[in-house]
Amino acid sequence: MDAHFQALIVVLPLLAAPLAALLRGRTGPWLLATLVSWAMLGLALALLLKVQAEGTLSYALGGWAAPIGIEYRLDALNAFVQVLLALVAAVVLPFMHLSAAQEIDEERLPGLYAAVLLLLAGLTGITATGDAFNVFVFLEISSLATYTLIALGQDRRALTSAFRYLIMGTIGATFFLIGVGLLYGMTGTLNMADLGERLPAVADTRTVHTAVAFLVVGVCLKLALFPLHLWLPNAYTYAPSAVSALLAATSTKVAVYVLIRFLYTVFGVEFSFGELPLTSILVVLAMLGMLIASAVAIGQQEVKRLLAYSSVAQVGYMVLGIALATTAGLTAALLHLFNHALMKSALFLALGCIAFRMGGTRVEHFKGIGRSMPWTSAAFVAGGLSLIGVPLTVGFISKWYLVLAAIGQGWWWLVVVILISSLMAVVYIWRLVEVAYFETPAERDRHHEAPLSLLLPTWLLVALNFWLGIDTRLTVGVAESAARALTGGGS
Predict the structure, then answer these.
(1) DSSP alpha helices (H): ranges in 303-373?
(2) Closest CA to 6 of 89, 105, 82, 72
(3) DSSP string of 254-288, one letter each residue
(4) Would you tell me which of 152, 159, 332, 482 could form a disulfide with 76, CB atoms 3.0–4.6 Å apart?
(5) Cα–Cα distance, 418 to 234 (Å, whole number)
(6) Does 200 sit behind a cis peptide bond, omega within 30 degrees of 0 on the bond before it?
């Protein structure tokens, strides 16, 4: 049975989605989605252990061997990302039961959970497949689910945010598909491993260079690299609270995975960062994103939007590691991909607790909650410490590895940029801490702490932020092995 786990982890949420849509009430669809997410987490962990024991796994759909048939190919990189997706979903969905019931009409809840399952199927399918066109298909499945999830927000602006993302997402997907089409025209194959073998013979052609440009721009739009990030702030701000947490931890991370897969597996390190000027372009855009998005975050009054701009800055850290084109840099990028998902989902869940009691997530809603909602406030502060990169948190681990990678290249100026961006994070996190603990609410009545069903998932993610910041054997070990395999074992 375990031979089919690679396909089952994608098929399970795909089949469960229409069933969730048919169920009625708020508990049935939620319970189904939650059980599916827990099953996916078990499958993802089993596959990761199998990859570590046996190496790269290949699964031929329908018995048709690659490159003629569609291949699901699993190595340390995508097994790592699959664990992240399933882990976040397994924690966020229990939170969603009470949170979504407050923010969304009951008749829309089955559609919500069906869309969540389709999102998981699409994102997991992207990481599972070894076929370039299949990546596009699953990208569209996940995108359509995302547009639906954002549009379910209470504010009418959720509809315009979803529409804006639809337009931008469609442009990105079209660019990606054009790039894949050009590669197929030059090589006659869509299998990514096969593409990696055939491309060197035609790598010097204008067609391949054009394909790289279309693919990189399309994927960077999906991962919200500055200045292609304009869809992200509104999407995170107006989506339901639990949806914001899920999207912030998964969607952009899978897009970062796609960028890594194509630049390192399909095009190869020498071509992507040696023959093409991608290092210079990506480093400049990453640094601009880190600094400008952090500066914009400081002035925000809506905390969801603040965290959204923070995510744009954090994507800069990941792209920076990718652009270094070294084992150390890629290790840092993979670590931050995983760690940022944990810290940002914890922060958004804490915001969900605040929205549940206070009715909003603006800065003024933070007044005095350090006393009235101590557990929620402490969770937000803990997530903020991880975002800043305080020692003993996951944020420190990935930033430390990125600093080491920059020093290894002799780029001391890059270390300064990383430190400046981190100090900016101190400013906008401290601003919220100050309001929560040192200001009193305008109303005399005090709000109560968030329900236990919301606090437990939030604190589980907070605990992971510290546990994996202290015991780094799992995350660093898998990230290093994946990076060595992709870079050929170089420094």
Answers:
(1) 303-323, 327-358, 369-372
(2) 72
(3) HHHHHHHIIIIIIS-HHIIIIISTHHHHHHHHHHH
(4) 482
(5) 26
(6) no
Q: Tally Cβ neighbours within 10 Å of residue 284.
A: 12
Amino acid identity, position 67: P
> Cα separation of 401 and 28, whole Å?
44
Strand-pair partners of 228: none
Amino acid at 383: G
Q: How far apart are CA 61 and CA 7, in angstroms?
A: 8
Share the mean pLDDT of the chain.
Answer: 87
Residue 60's H or E segment, with its range, is: strand 57-60
Q: Helix (H, G, I), strand (E, B), or coil: what is residue 477?
A: helix
- pTM over cut 0.70: yes
On whether the CB atoms of residues 236 and 308 are closer than 8 A, the answer is: yes
Which are the contacts of 62, defined by CB distance < 8 A and separation ≥ 6? 69, 70
User: Which position has the token pair 């590669």?
Assistant: 183
Cβ neighbours, 10 Å, residue 2: 10
Closest CA to 271 of 327, 336, 200, 223: 200
For residue 310, which of 281, 348, 283 has the smallest C-alpha distance? Answer: 348
**Digit-coded pLDDT (tens) for 121-173:** 999 999 988 888 889 999 999 999 999 899 888 778 888 888 888 888 889 89
Place of tokens 């905390």: 303
Q: Which residues contact 80 (CB under 8 A, 6 or more apart)?
A: 48, 334, 338, 478, 479, 482
Give the count of alpha carbons within 13 A of 216, CB side only: 22
How do residues 235-265 score in pLDDT, each as one tens digit? 888 888 889 999 988 988 999 999 999 999 8
Of the candidates 462, 85, 457, 459, the residue with the CA atom closest to the CA atom of residue 242: 457
Return the DSSP state at 447. P
